[in-house]
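Expect chain and fold; thus:
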Amino acid sequence: MLLDLTDVRAEDPGLTGAKASWLARGLRAGLPVLPGAVVPAAASRPVMQHGVEVMESRGSGGARLAISQEPLDADLGDAVVAAARALGETLVVRSSSMLEGGGEWSGAFTSYLDLSPEETPVGVRGCWASAFTVHTLERYEASGVEPGSAPMAVLIQPALTPEFGGVAKLADGEVSVIGVEGSPVPLVQGWDPGVHAQVTESGVVKGDSAVSVLGESVIRSVADALRSAERAIGANTCEWAIAGGEVALLQLGRAEFREKQALAVPEEFASPEIAGLARLVRRFPGPLGEELVLPWAVASPASFLEVVEPIAVDPFEAFVEASQQARALTAEVWGARKADSSDRAIEAIRQLRGDQPMEAVGVMSMLRAPDAERSRTMLGLLATVRAALVEAGAVGRPDQAWHLSSKEITDVLRSGRASEMRSRIGFDRWEPFDAAVVVAHGRSMDAVSAASGIGVGRLCFVDDPKTASDFRPRDVVVGLRPTPKLAPLLWDASALITTGGGPAAHLFESARALAIPALAAVDLESLVGTDLVSASGRFSIAVDGNEGRLWVMEW
């Protein structure tokens, strides 16, 4: 019913989940890992299925209540208590889901601290129940995983009273150590930024503030333990604690660290014409914008930034008419036959997005502005189409419709319904162009890098679940602290910024796993000149997670 961490079978993540299997490998390799026992993942399968069934009628809260209040099977409960008593008087009970092999699920499930042996069965049920919290269900939806489909093992270990705790990673021969006094919990939950140190391959310790708080011996012992873990089992990340002067590895894993991208901004991007075109592209993104709006709107970018209301007409007829109007407006603007004008517009747009932006700007500056009334009618027709796509369930918001192809739109409008909703849009090919524009024209600030990469998007401040509804795919998520409630948004965010916390938080581990650039401890209000609620939706932000820098300009 239970597996001891010293049992060779505990190294199988299919039996014991990602977290416990890494620790089992470490313990058997002689690393400073605490002893422990694991409730195998198979024990959770009927519980997860029961949770799914209850959730259908009683929702998330009903599923959690049903799981947490039902006692463990008598034999399993007795085995859990017996194993806990053998481990000590005070225990920690933690999830070890198969999903936790990827950092994107970091912090998703609940841990229980300081339990007595008799309380550990309650902790086991609580870990299973945490698979049905609102935020965890949102992660399931964002990642395309069916709720209850991933079994969860549960790990039971002795509790510590740490003098220090934190996280560490090994990359390019250097160990980065982040730590705090006492338990690492405030650090990984995003409440305490911690102090930072580096230990070079030659053993030099860097980071005066960390040395003054943690002490050089603590930093070296953590670095030595992680280097040993890398040699023994291939782990290059860990969560650690110092108790009684000795290091304990609380969690082990392996992360793939991305090669840093260069954020190159050509001098020509300082052009006000390019800034105007960037605003136009933000307004009409995706395949629909490129096909039906940009070819003629580039002749007068500033004229088409206001919102146009839908027109009362059949949506399918509106789309057919909009397609015809787009070809006519493009021919009018480019002064050529419809086929030739379309080809010329496509080539100019390609140059703008590529390595010849000023050549494209020069060509566009010579174009004749389209008829204003026909242009507004055209945009009204597309507004009708986009509203119909929301009603048909093809997308959740009108702005997401810009990212559908003409074929997808035609299929939905003909049938009046969508086979599935497009909730994510993925990387947009205009993002490198937009990032360069924001860097060239925006105000900048240094910040703490929490995840590498380059990202750009609309500022979206998310303070609580209510404001999460303002999030649009490819927005830059901005929060006060790196708490787990923001994690479900990361699957389709372009970047993450928090005004507090530090890079050791679980949320930033999720961002790194999802290749989302992230910054921490950003005084964003001083940069945008207003409070974050007012700033939300009004600014475009470029994030350089490699160098720890960001830029903002008006959206």
Q: What stands out?
A: The chain has a mean pLDDT of 93.
